[in-house]
Write a structure and sequence with these properties.
elongated, Ribosomal Protein L22, Chain A, alpha+beta, 5 strands
Length: about 110
C-alpha cells in the first residue's frame, strides 16, 4: 500500500535536492533515514523530516508494517523562484534567483 508525503516551497534548488533524492531512492526506510542523518547537506535535513512524516503517515494506516517499507520514489520538482537584486558598481544591478523545490516521497511495502 502506497504512502505519500509532500513538502512545498523548500528553500534549496531542485538540482541540489535531486542529488540527495538519488541517494535514497529504492532503499529501505531505516537505511534511508540513516543516510540522510549523516549527509551534511541542507536538503538532506529537509528530506529526512519529510521521510519521517511519510513513516508517520504509514503508521496511522491499518495493515501497513513499517519495517517492510521502502522508498519507492522521490520526486523533486521546481517551485516558485524568488527574484532579488543586488547592487553593483556604476549604478548597475544583478539578479539573484533564490530557487525553491517541491518534494514528494512515496513509500511502498516490499
Amino acid at each position: 500500500m502506497e504512502v505519500r508525503a509532500t513538502a512545498k516551497h523548500l528553500r534549496f534548488s531542485p538540482f541540489k535536492g535531486r542529488l540527495i533524492a538519488d541517494m535514497i531512492r529504492g532503499k529501505a526506510v531505516h537505511e534511508a533515514v540513516g543516510i540522510l542523518a549523516f549527509t551534511p547537506k541542507k536538503s538532506a535535513r529537509a528530506m529526512k523530516k519529510l521521510l519521517e512524516s511519510a513513516i508517520a503517515n504509514a503508521q496511522t494506516r491499518e495493515g501497513v508494517d513499517v519495517d517492510e517499507l521502502y522508498v519507492k520514489s522521490v520526486c523533486v520538482d521546481t517551485g516558485q523562484t524568488l527574484k532579488r537584486t543586488i547592487l553593483r558598481s556604476m549604478g548597475r544591478a544583478n539578479r539573484i534567483f533564490k530557487r525553491t523545490s517541491h518534494v514528494t516521497i512515496i513509500l511502498d511495502e516490499i
